[in-house]
Amino acid sequence: MTVLLEARDLTVRYGGHTALEGVDLQLSPGEIVTVVGPNGSGKSTLLRALIGAVPLAQGRIQPSPDLRIGYVPQKLQVDPTLPLTVDRFLQLPHRVPAAERSRALEEAGVPHLAGRQLVSLSGGQLQRVLLARALRGRPNLLLLDEATQGLDQPGSAAFYRQLEEVRDRSGCAVVMVSHELHVVMSASDRVLCLNGHICCQGEPEAVSSAPEYRALFGSGTGGALALYRHQHDHHHEDGMPHLAHGHGPGRGDREDGGRHDPPPPEPVPAKATVEEETSPFPGESGR
Q: In what order do the strands lie in the sheet with 141-145?
């Protein structure tokens, strides 16, 4: 089986705080992996570690020689006085051929937005444009950090359908951070549950019935949790059972990305900034 990226024993510390510890992860072409966990559990840190944006305190990342990463941030803050069209935005920070820009917008489902001012876009339209930006270099790995934050449920569903179409056409792997558990269960091949470390992972059917998952999210997610069962084979130091780490892919609104009002529910992490798709991968670091 082809492996796009393999991470071993990833540990990230901010000062004296350990944000992520001992994470092992392997990504293969064509799979959709969703990372879930409470606020402050290390979800965004994991993505930033994978693109080389934060240093590792421990562990290593081994990319395949032809790895190409596209990254979609949570949000992009645009100065409302900045005259910047979508087409010009797709050429930052370097020129991109017109055919490549058109292809990326087409794949993201918004070819009609090329001439629009960035500040005039709705939330859904802007997220599609950020997806197009990530698709410029024909990535074989897409990373999305809560890319549907602020969209309503139909808007989120449309965005995830677009992602599935991109995956189906290109065969790329998709790793996305999400709080939308109902979407996670329907759109993912594999779910990774984080709380500073990997609590459990595997196919959605397995993860959703895990005690670790229920301890973090409860059992009132519209019946999504009650559908599944899983066996446990060892315990954490705190006495909680730990899932056998399952790997491998399982299965395989508004279409214009129109304006959506943000949902009321839970608090969200701090806004991320756009990162370039260049990816300096750190090697092994001292223990």
A: 69-72, 141-145, 173-177, 32-36, 190-194, 198-202
